[in-house]
Amino acid sequence: MKIIVLVKHVPDAQFDRHLNGEGYTTDRDESILSELDEYALEAALQLAEARGGSKAGNQVIALSMGPAGAVNAVKKSLQMGATEGVHLTDDALAGSDAAATSLALAAAIRHLGAGAPVDLVLTGMASTDGETSLVPAQLAERLSLPQVTFASSLEVDGGRLTARRDADTYSETVEASLPAVVSVTDQINEPRYPNFKGIIAAKRKSITTLSLQDIGVDPSQVGRAGSWTTVTSAEERPPRTAGTIITDEGDAGIRLVDFLAAQKLL
Amino acid sequence: MANVLVFIDNPGDALKKSSLELLTLGRSLGETAVALNGELHSGVSAALAEYGVGAVFRPSAQDLDDYLVAPKAAYLAAAVAATGAGTVLLDNSPEGKEIAARLGIRLNAGVITDVVAVDADGTAHKSVLAGSYTTAAKATTPVSVLTVKANNVTPEPATAPSSPEAATIEVPADSTAAAARITERQQKTASGRPDLTDARIVVAGGRGLDGDFGPVEQLADALGAAVGASRAATDAGWISHDAQVGQTGKTVSPQLYISVGISGAIQQKAGMQTAKVIVAVNKDAESPVFEIADFGIIGDLFDVLPQATEEIKKRKG
Ligand SMILES: Cc1cc2nc3c(=O)[nH]c(=O)nc-3n(C[C@H](O)[C@H](O)[C@H](O)COP(=O)(O)OP(=O)(O)OC[C@H]3O[C@@H](n4cnc5c(N)ncnc54)[C@H](O)[C@@H]3O)c2cc1C
User: Fold this and answer.
1) ipTM value of the model?
2) In B70-197, where do the E strands start and end?
3) A13 versus B125: which is more confidently predicted?
């Protein structure tokens, strides 16, 4: 199988995150591989391993789009076990919205499928910075592929995949033919940590760098120029401050109700 | 010609509150039309008239529900073409966002998710980075596609009712060709409590409950609240994954969020810190949840919650 996993380099949510500069883009210092993409990578590795791994010709290609630092998301993916890494980077990509991002990623995926076709594109359920979860569906639309989002289990048998999805009021089983675009939730597996062997092996794996020219995308189609939405203002919300803290002295339940009554919340 | 197209998916016998909110918001932006999927019951027809809807469209195909979103996006794109609408409003559910995503590509239209308000000029307001920024954004394209969060608009009928025209929209024949098919669907049993994302009050429990959600459920029922949970509680299997609040669960923005036996990790905060009022009960004074709580109680939840529940029942008579 040839699987492409989309891995995003995102600001670490453990720290304060900021928007800055023209277009209010996210400050990408202190960034890491999006935790939600680790589940997609793990799913890809498991599918490849179940088919005999890289020795049997299974490829797991980690693809990241972003500035220089985004190569770290690719490196971490290689340490976890991806067989190849691809970094799509170009100054013109800065400030891309979901539509422009999906355009560039779709072109990169077509480029990577030029030799041998891609069977599966795997992504996390949402990026932990933009949180829109638009990109997987937009990629599927651009590539005219079936999309299965929020998969909490995934099986591939021949040219078909079966996935389970859990919504609020129902759970469902879905089927699609390959190739397809699939996003997975954090319920699907437990991502592995890179071990020492993986870290050493990753040093020998090469990372391909692609520019917009390589994938045949005009700079005007991406970045702020190619985006269909624009941010017109952004204001930092004042951080919440702590209110009254009391220690229970046997009457805290009653004082809680007093507080709710005073706030007119009863 | 309608300016605003509102998508309503399988309303059943009556329109949900969130649909009424979309219709109210739509009316503030112009003449509204509805693209409906599923049965049109008389109660829904009446509500659409009451909310001043100018036209109601239905798809030519009846099997849209058998596939994941792709044919619904194709149907909506055809409806936009037929009406010339400049704004499409959908609900902010995962499915609503996906339909919006594909629709955006079909129409070359900008998509904005998680919208809480829309100005007359189409500027949409939303909060980003787990509620740490409030932003305004606008589509730069002729059509804009917005998914709107529930509970941010007060539903209001039109000053005068309308008599909506009915029309059928031809769903493109190839729209199911590259779509995933739903082969099985199981309805989950309803809890009888309010829906978590729409609830005015949420009582959420974490690892501190040690497997027993009873105290949280009893307090929730006394307050008419929904029940939420931290990931530690859902991962332990004490409560269904649907109840998870946070980065990989639901984002809630209720009037009141009561956090019980939850430490307040960043991923949990991401889902609840835009609540109007936050109350926390935790026995560890160092728990980060106290940094954001309006009212914090350092104490054992198994003492505090039953006492609060009793007191509420007493006061409510
Ligand atoms: C990619 C990713 C996504 C995640 N997404 C989410 C998410 O969406 N939602 C989420 O919640 N978490 C999420 N997490 C997990 C998150 O980091 C925390 O691990 C989790 O929120 C902890 O749950 P908790 O607070 O219930 O448990 P703990 O951190 O164990 O805290 C339990 C608390 O209960 C208190 N306590 C114990 N006994 C009592 C008692 N008798 N009375 C009062 N207090 C008591 C303790 O003092 C403690 O503060 C995510 C993590 C990752 C890596």
Assistant:
1) 0.92
2) 87-91, 110-115, 117-118, 124-128, 133-139, 144-148, 165-169, 181-187
3) B125
Distance (angstroms) between ligand 1 centre and the Cα of A36 equals 18
Q: Which residue has the higher pLDDT, A263 or B1?
A: A263
Pocket mutation for ligand 1, best pick of B213, B230, B245, B248 (most atoms within 8 Å of C-beta): B230
Q: What angle do CA B230, B235, B236 make, to 5 degrees?
A: 100
User: Could you tell me the mean pLDDT of each successive run of 10 residues in chain A, 266 residues long?
Assistant: 95 76 73 91 98 96 95 96 97 95 98 96 88 92 96 96 90 96 95 95 95 98 95 88 94 97 94
Task: Give chain B positions within 8 Å (CB) of A229.
Answer: 110-112, 137-140
Is residue A91 a contact partner of residue A1, using CB atoms and an 8 Å limit?
A: no
Outline where DSSP puts E strands in B109-193. Answer: 110-115, 117-118, 124-128, 133-139, 144-148, 165-169, 181-187
pTM score:
0.91
Q: Indicate if the alpha-carbon torsion angle B190, B235, B94, B120 is positive or negative.
A: positive
Q: pLDDT tens digits for B263-278?
A: 999 999 989 998 999 9
Contact B113 A134 (CB under 8 A): yes
Exposure string (b/e) for B54-87, b if CB count within 10 Å is 16 or more?
Answer: bbbbbbebeebeebbbbbbbbbbbbbbebbebbb
Say if residue B233's pLDDT is above 90. yes
B317 or A53, higher pLDDT? A53
Question: Cβ of B187 and A170 within 8 Å?
Answer: yes
Which residues does chain B have within 8 Å of residue A237's beta carbon, measured at their own beta carbons? Answer: 127, 131-134
Q: Report whether the peptide linkage leading into residue A179 is cis, meaning its omega lies within 30 degrees of zero.
A: yes
State residue B96's pLDDT score.
95
pLDDT value of position A238: 86
In our burial notation (b when 16+ CB lie closer than 10 A, e otherwise), range A220-252 reads: ebbbbebbbbbbeebeeeeebeebeeeebeeeb
Cα–Cα dist A61/A67, whole Å: 19
Per-residue b/e over A151-176, b at no fewer than 16 CB within 10 Å? bbbbebeeeebbbbbbeeeebeebbb
For the beta carbon of residue B192, count every other beta carbon within 10 angstroms. Answer: 6
* Chains A & B: contacts with CB separation below 8 Å: 263
